[in-house]
């Protein structure tokens, strides 16, 4: 019994980074969007396009680097449409995001239909033999693939840019008070456009991670609500990429335990197990709504289109 528990805990802890990485990448990309005042509810569709493009590139023999690049480019193409709707045409951001969500999920399903259920070469660990002397759980936890490492490094880079550089100050000013930023000489449209596109590329990385590292196959609907969970995690992390690491690890731990429970032989209702990430999302949203947690950190101009002629 002790051996079973030890093995179960070891496998669980070792799997957390891989399951947490897509959440962390997606949350980081959305934080960049929202700190500039743009709410992107199309994350699920953008991630789906990144996932299917990466798989198609692998099955076409382009190799892993090109697969990651194609995932980013596919997500960028979908994000360009979202940016056109919200930043250039200044349409309502919530509705525009829902359009991108539906369009991306549907288009990825159509494109990927003939490539579905075909296994691909996984993006494996960088140093598979470097941690052999460590305990099993620690070796699995530390020996990760390049995309997973990057997922945990990127939030520190984004935090530094947002909080410590002039570029970050300009981007944050656009999200807090776009008219004041415009009066100070900041190009609001350019800053928001750049933030949306960079965030979309990172969402594409999240989708590519799901297909190249996680499932290693394309299946329609494989993103399975992770884009929506990332939207909730932005609020839970209070629009801070460093706090997003803890939020993503929490959800990665919830997600990582599901396949272990299903394969353990324990008599646990399968539907209850599959509900766990969404129950955790409800709990996170409830926690985020308590007190002044949301109001104290949310950008003031979030989801508010900027019109230079507008006066407040």
- How would you state the average pLDDT, rounded? 86
Strand fraction equals under 5%
Residue stretches low in confidence (pLDDT < 50, at least 5 long) are none
Number of helices: 12
Key terms:
single chain, 312 residues, mainly alpha, ABC transporter involved in vitamin B12 uptake, BtuC, globular
Plain-language structure description:
By secondary structure, the protein is mainly alpha-helical. It has a single domain (13-117, 140-288), classed as ABC transporter involved in vitamin B12 uptake, BtuC, CATH 1.10.3470. 71% of the residues lie in helices and 0% in strands. The radius of gyration is 20 Å and the shape is globular. The mean pLDDT is 86. It holds the Pfam family BPD_transp_2. One of its GO terms (cellular component) is plasma membrane. It is found in: Cell membrane.
Provide a concise account of the structure shown.
The protein is an all-alpha fold. It has helices at 2-35, 43-59, 64-88, 93-112, 136-142, 146-164, 166-176, 178-183, 188-215, 226-236, 241-264, 270-288. It has one domain (13-117, 140-288): ABC transporter involved in vitamin B12 uptake, BtuC, CATH 1.10.3470.
